[in-house]
Design goal:
six-stranded parallel β-sheet, 2 domains, Quinone Oxidoreductase, Chain A, domain 1, 27% helix, Rossmann fold, alpha/beta, 328 residues, seven-stranded mixed β-sheet
Amino acid sequence: MQALYYVGPERLELRETEEAPLAEGESRVRIQATGICGSDLHAYHGHDPRRQPPLILGHEAAGEVVEGALAGKRVTMNPLIVCGRCAYCLAGHQNLCSNRTMIGMTRAGSFAESLTIPDHCLIELPDTLPSVAAALTEPAATALHGINRLERALSRPLAEARVLVIGAGAVGLLAGLMLRQRGVRTLQLADTNPLRRETAEKAGLEVFNPREASPEADSFEAVFDCVGAAPTRDMAVKAVRPGGAIMHLGLQDNEGGLDVRAITLKEVTFLGAYTYTPSDLRATVDLLDSQALGPLDWVEVRRLDEGAEAFAELAAGRTSAAKVILQP
């Protein structure tokens, strides 16, 4: 089969490789659509020591089971492989599993014609949900998980809050669309990339360039940092109202400090959210299938053999697509 390998910083190669043998309790999935994640870009730059080359990246995928218990079924998948036995798994917090591994990190990922994955990671898809849309399940579930966690921290319903989303990449854009779907009336997105701002505007969201106009201080009850960099953390702390909440979803860097004095004096709730639970993924499939997030025409589809070029363009900020989907 063909697979796109990460072979070193900013180096990807399309290679012919053997399919992995199928272990007990696993299925083989023929990939029909797979998305490029920000964490894949992080690895591409050589900034993720967990992803060691040579490695097939990719963990946002949809396809058809060709061998295994669900043979013939269309599926998306939970890229987190969990034990099901630890205290976190038993409490329903599988995303925090003490023994978790992950496709595209500790084993071959989805930038290939097929992959193997445990049966418990598979989620059947309705016939009405196209594979390209289904490949958005993973990033959309990340946004959903973060929204649900933040909403529980607010004293009033989320729909009544003034909300700021920092970053109009896939997770930020999907968060914005979900928040609008939940009835949030005052919602702004911030992004420095003019192409991404244009995409967000076409999706019907209000967006601004924070380099030209900083968000008003103490003006948002809820802030979602979907970038996770020192400047965006600083922006979030300044923009959040006293008594408000910040959801930190992005993982761009771990540099710089955090204004804990402001967080303390403003009595701000600062939360992190890591990935999603199986319930989040299934709820996201239903949400995508309902088309409640509107047309997904901001997704760009390319062939797998164009993957290296797509990575280079994403890294340089030369594409307006909030999500690039590769198809083998």
